[in-house]
Amino acid sequence: MPRKTKGSPEKQPKAKGYIAGAGEIVEQDVGETMRKNFMPYAMSVILSRAIPEIDGFKPSHRKLLFTMYKMGLLGSGRTKSANIVGQTMKLNPHGDMAIYDTMVRLSRGYEALLHPFVDSKGNFGKAYSRDMAWAASRYTEARLDDICKELFRDIDKDTVDFTDNYDNTMKEPTLLPASFPSVLVNANTGIAVGMASNICPFNLSEVCLTAAALLRDPQADLFETLQAPDFPGGGQLVFDREQMGKIYETGRGSFRVRSRYSYDKSAGCVDITQIPPTTTVEVIVEKVVDLVKQGRLKEISDIRDETGLDGLKITIDLKRGVDPDKLMQKLFKLTTLEDSFACNFNVLIGGVPRVLGIRELLDEWTGFRIECVRRRTYFDLQKRKEKLHLLLGLQAILLDIDKAIRIVRETEEESEVVPNLMIGFGIDETQAEYVAEIRLRHLNREYILKRTAEAEDLKKEINELEGILGSKSRVKSIIIRELEEVAKRYGQPRRTMLLYADEIEEIQIKEEVPDYPVTLFFSKEGYFKKITPQSLRMSGEQKLKEGDEIVLQEESTNSAELMFFSDKAQVYKLRASDFEDSKASVLGDYIPAKVQMDEGEKAFSMAVTKDYDGFMLFLFENGKAAKVEMSAYQTKTNRKKLIGAYSDKSPLTAALYLHEDAEVLLTSSSGRMLLFHTGLILPKTTKNTQGVQAMSLKKGQRLISARVYEEGALSNPARYRKKLPALGALPDAEETAGEQMTL
């Protein structure tokens, strides 16, 4: 038995590893916990992960490239990618796969960037393929591409600020002093918390010339130098000047990019060699195969992914007699062979995320670059001033070398040499240290003349650098010159062709639906059946739920359009072909479930049309009648649901679809009947019109039925024809003879 400890529990000795408060349940406010923990995370994602800064890089990109620069991989041989990833971990506290994935995207082999920053060797996958995975980092090699010289130009001349890494053992740059606007040259996509960034790439030469043009004239027309985005995968950009102008101005908007293809007449196939940047080869092939299986693409006999060493290639075999251009227009509509690119130029400016247009973005980059050039110039100026200061001290010594030698020789202690030179020639300690280190072999006439001439050159350079620092226009001239040099050295022809939107013929794709005669049934409870004539002849009675009845039976074809009006003033549009052929022995499709009506909503009536001719006649319980032209329900797009299909001010009694004006018989709850011609009511194009009063009703009465009048249904129809609005007439004994009395 363990020995019990005397005394109160508070005074008992604590067990080893005891943690105060462990295991206690503490109530916390969820909202406060979220604010306390989630907000720092959200800020970290926005500022340190997902949104690029004005130099065009996210922190992960910058850390990787700077590590490679410090490893000496600019202009040298390649090293294993695993080595680079390991070194990058000193700056980037993430797993090796996350760092390697970043490196892959920046590589030449992956083909995601117009101007890759990493010169890769080995399998780095492809941006246009979902399934083509890159090799592990131990197999591939890499170094910095030559264009990185422009990213790191003068980084050692205090052009940008440096900060401590995560464990304060190294320094890393907060930005890279890129000498061209890389933020617009290479695409960047990032999803933060509550915001995102999606920057499309532009041609390097065009961006540099545009930045230079804006430095000369801030109001310059962007379209004169910057045509449109340019993607590494090429393709064809559907150019709309107004749409593109909006993107240039606001940094938001979208445009379409099409694939490029060629037709091989001898082989009877279409070869697709360039696709939009937002899709992959596998997605396109799978979609085409799916469409062929559905029977929506009958022109294609086969499709193959023939991507290989020569690059991307999708081959589509056509059936005999198929027009390749018409087929491609159809594929542009149905697949991602044409896709839209949504722009969101969200960039961190001074630690604040801002969505900027092209002009504002280049203005911010110009301000950043001006600061870099000024800091570089000041650094060079200070270095030259320091050197001139040393040379001026040397000149003072060289005026009397013998005296300097004598001072050095007569000084007993070495530590006194510098102070004695300072006293003997009136120079400071730095100059005296420099003089004391001069070698004996340099005490000759040639050395003295060279140093004197060098001092004169330094004075001229100092005057030049001071002139640059004092003139903003000279700083801008330097930036313009550097931009033009970059454009000349690294510029490439455009890869993406421009298609002007007003020159493209848009085709309307009509799905081929097999058309054959059918009989359509709609029941009071909202069940629908589509039965072929042959099946109908062989059928017996219609199967219905208990208490249900057929309220509409109409002969039509499989291509007819169906409109189901609900009791909540909404209409749902489908085609007869959307339903499977049925039989009389089944209940049929329950419309509220089929069209996904709202909870508690019921199907009230059905209208069958092909050309939207005629009109809908709505009869309400308050005795009003509304006549709405059927064309009001026709839409250009294939919309499935329309709200406000009719007025909801009074409950609906009947919805009748009439191709032409006819007589309609109304019956009220008092038993009165009214017969009127629909030509007396003017048609409306507004769907939710309240209509006009057709039947006058006394307090507590309502309209309970409305149907199209059939000749002979009444023995004396003239008795019920009245001028609208009217109370109607009570039926006489002849009309009700033989009818069973009802409550």
In short:
The protein has 19 helices and 32 strands.
What do these coordinates show?
Strand 25 and strand 26 (624-629) form a beta hairpin. The strands form 10 sheets. This protein has a 4-stranded mixed beta sheet with strand order 14-9-8-17. It has 19 helices and 32 strands. The protein is elongated. 31% of the residues are buried.
Which structural class is indicated by helix and strand composition?
A: alpha+beta
Mean pLDDT: 89
Oligomer: single chain
Number of strands: 32
Task: Give the class-level CATH name of the largest domain.
Answer: Mainly Beta
User: How is the biggest beta sheet arranged?
Assistant: 4 strands, mixed
Q: How large is the share of residues in beta strands? A: 15-25%
Extract low-pLDDT stretches. 1-10, 737-743
Helical element count? 19
Helix content: 25-40%
Question: Which CATH architecture of the largest domain?
Answer: 6 Propeller
> Strands of the biggest beta sheet: in what spatial order?
14-9-8-17
Radius of gyration, in angstroms, nearest whole number: 42 Å
How many domains, as an integer?
4
Instruction: For the record, give the distance between the C-alpha atoms at the N and C termini, rounded to a whole number.
Output: 90 Å
Examine the coordinates and then state which fold CATH places here, giving the name of the CATH topology of the largest domain. Answer: Neuraminidase
